[in-house]
């Protein structure tokens, strides 16, 4: 039996595939811990999993923040640079607490502290992707929210997309100063990019989406396994009416 820590971050769309995996792992006899946003504590408690909060603490119901993050021009940079990398230290601290005595850490895609935690803890790390656009394949043409012009050039094929990804690495590399400083402070190699090349675990990377959305590509990371969608439909809850709800109804 292994102790497995799941660390999703984001909306219910990010959380539910992890709950599907967590329920399956528990049924197979493993100890499961969920480390995610505080707002989901009640949901995790209802499922009977041990819960740890994960910062930065935001609410999916924050409409202003959602508007900023969904902005096609600057949303991606706000999520990555300000929200996640800007809070890398508290995220690291929370994950270190959650992974005490753990054997495996299964992390959401933007949980950028996961690699550092796995290195410090000497944990097995499994990384994840929920959509093919985040696999960065030169074989599978994509149009990114802040680069709509790409749809006019996708016919140029792989050579063009290699140039696009080279430009992406340069831009994103300029966002990593605080991340590199953080890695130096905790005694790890600063030469790590958790967003593009360094985000894939060499042990196992789960592509958690259907082949209908994107088929496996030759340049996916060698450790990738495409699982298809992992569905959580609420049927594995404790099956009891929450206290006071029946009276309220």
Q: How would you write the strand order of the largest sheet?
A: 3-2-1-4-5-6-7
Number of strands: 7
Mean pLDDT: 91
Separation, N- and C-terminal Cα atoms: 42 Å
| Structural class label | alpha/beta
Could you spell the SSE succession in H and E letters? EHEHEHHHEHEHHEEH
Architecture overview:
There is one protein chain. This protein is α/β, with parallel strands linked by helices and 249 residues long. The protein contains 9 helices and 7 strands, in the order βαβαβαααβαβααββα. Strands 3-2-1-4-5-6-7 form a 7-stranded parallel sheet, sandwiched between helices. 29% of the residues are buried. The mean pLDDT is 91.
Q: Which key features would you list for this structure?
A:
alpha/beta, 7-stranded parallel β-sheet, 13% strand
State the gist of this model.
By secondary structure, the chain is an alpha/beta fold.
Helix-strand blueprint:
Layout: E1 3-7, H1 12-27, E2 31-36, H2 41-47, E3 50-53, H3 63-69, H4 75-84, H5 88-98, E4 104-107, H6 114-121, E5 124-129, H7 158-173, H8 177-185, E6 204-207, E7 224-226, H9 245-248
Parallel strand pairs: 1-2, 1-4, 2-3, 4-5, 5-6, 6-7
């Amino acid at each position: 039996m292994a102790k497995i820590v799941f660390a999703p971050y984001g909306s219910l769309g990010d959380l539910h595939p992890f709950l599907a995996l967590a329920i399956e792992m528990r049924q197979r006899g493993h100890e499961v811990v969920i480390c995610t946003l505080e707002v989901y504590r009640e949901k995790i408690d209802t499922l009977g999993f041990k819960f740890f909060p994960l910062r930065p603490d935001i609410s999916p119901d924050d409409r202003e923040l959602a508007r900023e993050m969904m902005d096609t021009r600057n949303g991606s940079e706000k999520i990555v640079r300000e929200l996640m990398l800007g809070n890398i230290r508290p995220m690291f601290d929370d994950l270190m607490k959650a992974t005490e005595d753990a054997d495996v850490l299964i992390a959401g895609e933007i949980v950028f502290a996961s690699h550092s935690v796995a290195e410090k803890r000497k944990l097995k790390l499994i990384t994840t992707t929920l959509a093919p656009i985040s696999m960065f394949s030169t074989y599978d043409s994509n149009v990114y929210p802040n680069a709509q012009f790409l749809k006019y050039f996708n016919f140029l094929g792989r050579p063009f997309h290699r140039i696009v990804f080279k430009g992406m690495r340069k831009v994103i590399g300029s966002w990593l100063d605080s991340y590199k400083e953080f890695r130096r402070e905790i005694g790890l190699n600063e030469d790590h990019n958790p967003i593009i090349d360094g985000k894939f675990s060499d042990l196992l990377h789960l592509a958690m989406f259907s082949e209908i959305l994107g088929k496996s590509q030759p340049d996916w990371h060698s450790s990738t396994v495409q699982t298809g969608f992992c569905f959580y439909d609420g049927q594995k809850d404790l099956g009891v009416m929450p206290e006071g709800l029946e009276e309220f109804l």
